[in-house]
Amino acid sequence: MSPTLKVLVSDNISPEGKAILEETKGIEADVRAKVPPDELKAIIKNYHGLIVRSATKVTAEVIATAENLRVIGRAGTGVDNIDLASASKRGIVIMNTPGGNTLSAAEHTLSLILALARHISQATASIKAGKWEKDRFMGTEIGDRTLGIIGLGNIGAVVAQHAESMGMKTIGYDPFLSPEAAAKKKVELVSLDDLFARSDFITLHTPLTSSTKNLLNASSFAKMKKGVRIINCARGGLIDEMALHEAIVSGKVAGAALDVFEKEPPGKNPLLELDQVICTPHLGASTTQAQVKVSIAIAEQVVEYLLQGTARHAVNLPSVSPEVLVLLNPYLILAEKIGKFQAQITPGRMQEVHLTYSGSVLEMETPMIAMSLLKGLLEPILEEKVNFVNAPILARERGIKIVESRSRESEDYTTLLTAQVQTEKVLNTVAGTLFGKNEPRIVRINEFVTEAVPEGNILFVHNQDKPGVIGNMGSTLASHGINIGQMHLSRDQIGGTAISLVHVDGPVSQEVLNALQRLPHILSAIQLEL
Ligand code: NAD
Ligand code: MLT
Asked: Ligand 1 pocket: which of 173, 205, 213, 231 to mutate (most atoms <8 Å of CB)?
């Protein structure tokens, strides 16, 4: 029976997700609404999975003590509360739930645009204070006004659609979106400066990264129309809050609606003293529907990863749909086997790995295949846990150059994956294919052609092509009580050199290897574990 895997939920998620965790066999859920940072650091080593919203900060210090953690699930979109680099280095998969709260965040943005245009919050406060200030709250129509959308991903696109339906003209800036993709979203793609110059309302929908930090700053406000209104329902750090304060006080910006702040809760923030600023406490995704969707999604994703190894919506892995993953899996196994094979036959410090894809493998997601090969290559030689997430990072850190090339030629095979590994000592080439769609085979080891099954314990013997070598090997193994399961032989030319791949039932002792190496015409004998 496999051991129970423990999942900590450290922020408040909807009961539907908790129920999935609690009802899944093999998973033990520990659902806590809030875990203080020091406690998280102390207890995280007991868990294989962690589910958070935005309150829990998964810092490098937390990750340093997370010895058993395999996956961090974010019930929501933004993963800026998780130290991605530290988690990836440790091989921890990070996943989010894109789309689950898109509609809610977009609707909240629209609510803020309207509330800002018609002073809803200020007028509410005024009436509650016993006043009737009809003249004080002159609003502005939004129909026919231009909405500048920065970031045209999931939320930005829905905001555009809804704003259009209310008669707004929409323009957008997103450096990662092609004009064709923007046209499908029915948004005119413009430069950032153009957007600043033309917009009556500007709304932000990008992630917070080093390149989007303070995207709206003093110089951007200077380029905007006088009387522009700013909405931020994405992330606090996207706006330089002091610069926004100055722009409002100077009259350049007529008002701002903020759902998010650089520091949350914002504490004593001068923006909160301005009448032109309305705000909500990070409520974009706070609807019953969105919370149910993200809670169910993240619980299912984390369970699926822990129990089956399938990573859906992982932000630190190439995104592959479950359907594609089924097709890809045999290639991933083949690549990992080739990597493991190479790691065990190739002495010396690795300098370069050259991967060539030929035949049907070209139709697959080759970045995942390369990751799998690196995983196989590094696993036998590193103490630390190697997986898809950290294999490329570990390879880079070790100075291994990865070169990939594609070839239409696949010799006699429908698919062929070839890995050349260059160390300071040797250059070894190992190629593999799939028989009957998903049976991995090693078909070439340097100049030797074979059809070896890369599985289990294998003795890899290099010898001169002379009579009696195979017989001697058989007798030596038999004299040590070792049974031969299968054997694959290959030679470069008659009387040249040959290799034997001898499948045995378990690891053999050094004494057996020494006995083989002492036999006449044997050049080398090593054992492989695949
Ligand atoms: P998304 O990944 O679907 O879209 C982000 C878009 O930003 C992408 O199209 C990307 O190309 C674009 N982008 C990246 N860098 C950019 C740059 N420098 N300039 C312009 N565009 C850039 O994400 P999403 O689901 O639409 O979420 C958008 C933001 O909203 C995220 O920051 C997310 O964390 C936040 N969010 C907030 C709430 C809330 O409660 N307030 C709820 C959900 C999401
Ligand atoms: C998100 O990025 O999804 C939001 O910040 C929503 C949240 O979890 O509060």
From this structure: 205
Residue type, 195: L
Residues 6+ apart with CB under 8 A from 528: 340, 341, 344, 345, 457, 458, 459, 460
The residue contributing the CA closest to ligand 1 atom 33 is 78
Q: How confident is the model at residue 381 (pLDDT cuts 50, 70, 90)?
A: confident
Q: How far apart are CA 221 and CA 288, in angstroms?
A: 36
Structure tokens given for 220: 């951007």
233's tokens? 């329902």
150 closest CA partner among 235, 241, 75, 222: 235
Q: What is the mean pLDDT of residues 497-519?
A: 95
Protein residues whose CB sits closer than 6 Å to any atom of ligand 2: 53-54, 76-78, 101, 282, 284-285
**Nearest CA owner, ligand 1 atom 14:** 206
Return the residue matching tokens 């139709």. 363
Measured CA to CA, the distance from residue 503 to residue 447 in angstroms comes to 21
Q: What does the pLDDT average to over 396-411?
A: 87
Q: Are strands 201-204 and 228-232 parallel, antiparallel or unpaired?
A: parallel
Residue spans of beta strands (DSSP E) within 216-308: 228-232, 253-258, 277-279
Please list, in sequence order, all residues whose beta carbon lies within 8 angstroms of the beta carbon of residue 225, skipping any fewer than 6 positions away. Answer: 197, 198, 199, 200
**Any idea which ligand is nearest the CA of 96?**
2
Q: Under 8 Å CB-to-CB from 301, ≥6 apart: which residues?
A: 73, 95, 97, 311, 312, 313
Read off the pTM: 0.81
Query: Which residue spans within 366-446 are E strands per DSSP?
Result: 401-407, 415-423, 427-435, 439-445
pLDDT 10s digits, 34-54: 899 999 999 999 999 999 999
pLDDT digits (tens, 9 = 90+) for 91-147: 899 999 999 999 999 999 999 999 999 999 999 999 999 999 999 999 999 999 999
pLDDT band for position 454 (cuts 50, 70, 90): very high
Q: Tens digits of per-residue pLDDT, 289-298?
A: 999 999 999 9
User: What are the structural domain ranges in the chain?
Assistant: 5-100+289-308, 102-279, 322-529
Question: In 10 A of CB 183, how many CB atoms?
Answer: 12
Q: What is the CATH number of domain 322-529?
A: 3.30.1330.90
CATH of 102-279, one of 3.40.50.620, 3.40.50.10490, 3.40.190.10, 3.40.50.720: 3.40.50.720
Active site residues: 235, 264, 282
Q: Flag whether pLDDT at 437 surpasses 70.
A: no
Has domain 5-100+289-308 been given CATH number 3.40.1180.10? Answer: no
Q: Do the two domains 5-100+289-308 and 322-529 of this chain adopt the same fold?
A: no
